Amino acid sequence: MFRKALLGAVSLVAMSVGAAQAEDLKEFRIGILGGENEADRLRNFQCMIDKLPGALGVEKVSLFPAADYDGVVQGLLGGTLDYAELGASAYAKVYLEDAKAVEPILTTVQTDGSTGYYSIMVARKDSGIAKLEDMKGKKLGFADPDSTSGYLVPAVTLPVALGGTPVKDYFGETGFGGGHENLVLEVLKGTFDAGTTWGSGVGEFKDGYTSGNLAKMVSKGILDMDDLVELWKSPLIPNGPIVVRTSLDADMKTKFKEFMVDLPKSDPACFSAIQGGDYTGYTEVTEEFYRPIIDARKAQIGS
């Protein structure tokens, strides 16, 4: 009886502490993945600073743009971020280290209704490299070690396209470009003969597709698609999740989710800015949606 009473008291104290912490939440912290320059990322998310305080009832919304994917991953694992939009592989990394750290709640829907995108290998059009087979023995650049399209999916699926030849045996050298935007710039500079980035695969390559890194670079005027050629496109990859800190107050989670679901209609410009392209809206997801990527990352780590 004493043990049960003690456990009950401990439980009540824990609940009280949790409630107090929820009531004391005055700042909502947003993690932003690396991939493009910091000024652009901060500008794209400014609308969240303007809108979220009123929607969530917090005094302040703060942006934390990480230098790379792992910066956001560690912030989520450490509980110092409340929300982030991750690639599927970055989410898998969080999940494999602490399955209870975050909850995936939403993902984007492409203009064709799909909930996926593609890893796309590009090379300079004037390089003489016109197809994947031309890359044998040459230097391939990946975007980021924690990127789904920029590393994990190419590492796992390229060998299939290469007739079973491992990536390390087919290409002369591989390296990382420091994020998707910088990777493409390094391909254009000749640092890499080709590189893997991402796009919706919807629309035309000549336009950079409807969304993704190529489309964002075209919209910013730092990329002319006439300078690139597409060498390879991966199988469809699940769109990355919007995740929230699991320990976040339930009411706060509900308010945030409702805000995000309404955003495409309430403020299309803000929705487009934070997503970097054309999407129709969001749909709900759970951990199960990302199970293939979690399994692929686990297998890759162990290989």
From TrEMBL:
Keywords linked to the UniProt accession: Signal
> Where does the record locate the signal sequence feature?
1-22
Question: Per the record's keyword annotation, is Signal included, yes or no?
Answer: yes
Output one GO BP term.
organic phosphonate transport
What's a GO cellular component annotated to this UniProt protein? ATP-binding cassette (ABC) transporter complex
Specify one Pfam family: Phosphonate-bd
InterPro entries from the entry? PhnD, Phosphnate-bd
Q: Does the keyword Nucleotide-binding apply?
A: no
PANTHER family from the UniProt entry? PHOSPHONATES-BINDING PERIPLASMIC PROTEIN
Could you say which protein family the record assigns here? Belongs to the phosphate/phosphite/phosphonate binding protein family.
NCBIfam families listed in its UniProt record: 3A0109s03R, PhnD
Instruction: State what protein this is by name.
Output: Phosphonate ABC transporter substrate-binding protein
Q: Which organism is it from?
A: Allomesorhizobium camelthorni
